[in-house]
Specification:
single chain, about 220 residues, alpha/beta, Rossmann fold, 2 domains, five-stranded parallel beta sheet, 12 helices, PGP-like_dom2
Amino acid sequence: MMTSAHVKSGKALVVDYGGVLTNPVEETIVHFATKMGFTPQQFIESLVKASNVPGETIMGDLERGVISEAEFTQRISKELADITGVERDMGDFRDVWFAGRRPNSEFLEYLAGIKSEGYSLALLSNNVKEWESQWRSIVPDGLFDVTVISADEGMRKPDLGMFEVTVERLSSNPADCLFVDDDLANGEAAEKLGMVFHRFTDTQSAVRAIDSWFGRTP
C-alpha cells in the first residue's frame, strides 16, 4: 500500500534490464560464443564490422528497430564467416542468446518488495522488438509502472530522449528519479538531464543506494 510518505516524496526508481535484472552481459556473450563455436572476441568483432554507424555495433540499429532480427543475423553471419572462415547458420540466435540470460532473482525479489510498498518503478531498456517474449519472461508482470523499450521508441540509450520519455511517463521530474544501470555512458546521459545515477556493480550496493534514495529502512 502506498503511504502518505511515499506520495509526498514523489521519488521514482528507473532500472536497466541487461546486467541489472539479469546476469552481466559479458557472461551472456561468452555463453553465446562458446555454444556457437567461436570466441567472444570474434563475435564482438563481427558486431562492429556489421554496423553502418560509426562508434557502435550493429546492436544499435537492431535495438532501435531500424533493422529486423533477420537482417541482423544475416549481416553478422557474413562477418563471422569472413573472420573465422566457417559459415554458421544464425537462425537460432535468439534461443542461444537467452539461454545465457539468467534473472537476477535477488534484485527482482527486492524490487517486488518495494513495489508492494507503493514506490514508483520504471524499466528503461535497450532491447529488441522480436525478443519481447523472451525478455518479458524474466520480468514479473506488473512490476513496473512504466516500461520504455528502445525498439518501440526508435532510439536507444544514451540518447537523451530515452530518459526524457521515461521521466514524462512517470509524471515526475528528472531530479526525483534514481537511475540504476551498469553502463557508465548511459548514466552520464541521465545525469545530463538531471537524474541521479547509481552504477550497478552488484545487487547489495544497488539495494543500499535505493533504500537511501527512498529514505527506506529495510
